[in-house]
Amino acid sequence: MSNSKGFTWWVERGKLAIAKTTDYGVIFTSPSEVLEVRVFCSKLADHFSTGASISLTEESDLPEMFHDALISKVNAMVYEKNPETIQIAGYWEGKYREAIFDAKKYGNENRVVGSYIKGEDY
Question: pTM score > 0.85 for this model?
Answer without folding.
Answer: no
